[in-house]
């Protein structure tokens, strides 16, 4: 898969299915993402700013959401979409 293909929704779906398959086989995944809506589907988020730890926590924890919003200087908001969280521009 071309790394740029991850940006398209069909390839995002394939990527998530691949991750679910690995997790079902008791694998541990560490993924570096800039696609916030996909990162929010992880169990745990680790956020970096200027190469330093900004925050880490459960992806569904309100404190994690506030830290993510702060990381982007309040220029995003998080909304519930079904069972998922999505980041939207303010």
Walk me through the topology.
Layout: H1 9-24, H2 36-39, E1 44-49, E2 52-58, H3 62-71, E3 76-81, E4 84-89
Antiparallel strand pairs: 1-2, 3-4
β-strand amount: 25-35%
- Uncertain runs with pLDDT below 50, 5 residues or more? none
Main sheet strand line-up:
1-2
Can you count the beta strands? 4
Rg measurement, Å: 14 Å
- SSE string, helices as H and strands as E: HHEEHEE
Q: What percent of the residues sit in helical stretches (DSSP H or I)?
A: 25-40%
The geometry reads as globular
The major β-sheet equals: 2 strands, antiparallel
H/I helix tally: 3
Mean pLDDT, rounded to whole units?
Answer: 91
Give the terminus-to-terminus CA distance.
32 Å
Secondary-structure-based class equals alpha+beta
List keywords for this structure.
4 strands; alpha+beta; 3 helices; 90 residues; 28% strand; two-stranded antiparallel sheet
Textual characterization of the structure:
- With 90 residues, this protein is of the alpha+beta class.
- It is 33% helix and 28% strand.
- It is built from three helices and four strands.
- The protein has helices at 9-24, 36-39, 62-71; strands at 44-49, 52-58, 76-81, 84-89.
- The mean pLDDT is 91.
Put the structure in a nutshell:
Helix content is 33%, strand content 28%.
